[in-house]
Amino acid sequence: xxxxxxxxxxxxxxxxxxxxxxxxxxxxxxxxxxxxxxxxxxxxxxxxxxxxxxxxxxxxxxxxxxxxxxxxxxxxxxxxxxxxxxxxxxxxxxxxxxxxxxxxxxxxxxxxxxxxxxxxxxxxxxxxxxxxxxxxxxxxxxxxxxxxxxxxxxxxxxxxxxxxxxxxxxxxxxxxxxxxxxxxxxxxxxxxxxxxxxxxxxxxxxxxxxxxxxxxxxxxxxxxxxxxxxxxxxxxxxxxxxxxxxxxxxxxxxxxxxxxxxxxxxxxxxxxxxxxxxxxxxxxxxxxxxxxxxxxxxxxxxxxxxxxxxxxxxxxxxxxxxxxxxxxxxxxxxxxxxxxxxxxxxxxxxxxxxxxxxxxxxxxxxxxxxxxxxxxxxxxxxxxxxxxxxxxxxxxxxxxxxxxxxxxxxxxxxxxxxxxxxxxxxxxxxxxxxxxxxxxxxxxxxxxxxxxxxxxxxxxxxxxxxxxxxxxxxxxxxxxxxxxxxxxxxxxxxx
Length: 495
Description:
Layout: E1 3-7, H1 11-22, E2 26-31, E3 42-47, E4 50-55, E5 61-62, H2 64-73, E6 84-86, E7 92-94, E8 102-103, H3 108-119, H4 121-144, H5 153-157, H6 163-169, H7 175-182, H8 186-194, H9 212-220, E9 222-225, H10 231-242, E10 246-249, E11 253-257, E12 265-268, E13 275-276, E14 279-282, H11 286-293, H12 297-301, E15 309-318, E16 326-329, H13 334-342, E17 359-363, E18 374-383, H14 400-414, E19 423-429, H15 431-438, E20 464-466, H16 477-491
Parallel strand pairs: 1-2, 1-14, 2-10, 7-16, 14-20
Antiparallel strand pairs: 3-4, 5-9, 6-9, 7-8, 11-12, 12-13, 15-18, 15-19, 16-17, 17-18
Helix pairs in contact: 1-10, 1-16, 2-16, 3-4, 4-6, 4-9, 7-8
Organism: Micromonospora craniellae
Pathway: Carotenoid biosynthesis
InterPro entries: Amino_oxidase (IPR002937), Carotenoid/retinoid_OxRdtase (IPR014105), FAD/NAD-bd_sf (IPR036188)
């Protein structure tokens, strides 16, 4: 039996703790915040009409089979803890210039028919051709990448991919290039580009292999958890406690002790004695690990802090807006938005708030999260990370957040969804707020190392492992859960 310390109680940290505890290890989870869940946050705003409840992180659960596997591996059934509600549409896409909307769904034939009805037969045929490519990429990725350790690009070259897999994945091509090669309709290209942002990346630079992201969503479905996605954190905490895991909140780890090249404990702020450990699992951003907790200039140099962040409005709205659970309102110039978010630091061009951004609105049809005859809106706009360097925005600059919130509401009004006279309240969450609440560097949503290949799960010292969105296989609830499975399998059982 090993003494294992998990740093961070996000989904990845709780999932790996439960998996390790069920195999006989002594597991302690240390979390700096007062609650568990990490970026899977929640917020309640009380009003005279009643409370509004918000998920302040993920709003969609995909690849539910991964979560069924997790709970079964820890001796439970997912349905005993969570009520999964399938979504149709998964996302309603509202394109610039008016015209028909496009509702995505988990039935490939039905979605193709919807594309044909909204955008024409050629667009539907294009999508079918792309879908066949995405299927090959998904199968190769799921088999060879997502469920195994990948320590370096050399590991990818050694995988036993068939020639057809390599042709489908096509190393060197961008997701934008893939869209241009397969999709003649600009609106479908915009739809595809949006999935790069699910990994924190710019579609013009993101690898074409990320076509597996829409495939996973549209082949296996999108799900809501009744009561909110944060109920997943509650369920995982319950599993951990039932399995004997010690979970300490309000415990900020300030250093990983790894003298002699082996992890043997952590230091907690305000605590004189170290917390001993045979194994340390870090469920914090890789940049934070190698910059602050266990400084490693070599590994730090390999981390690209170029992942996007998010600017969020939490709105209490009177009445019924008729929106789908998820609605994305696209801009006229998608490239201008990415130019603003990422800037061009090499040319001295600073990042800035996009003036005409894509706006993603989540409105759960769930009486448990809002008063009668009201709606709880979670409004997300992709944004540059917080900071003072050319590729970032100082979101603490006086007046900026309020002015940008006004602009987003104006953009929604311009796109046919004016709620300015129906607001009960509005609250703002900037990338700086996310950085403060979750220790995500710059407020990066999906980890600072955006893109396909993330930092390795095996850490810089023997007995140190990394889980979570900034490490392999990537960001998003399913991927961080798979990272927990990879690490738990590598550590192995206590017997």
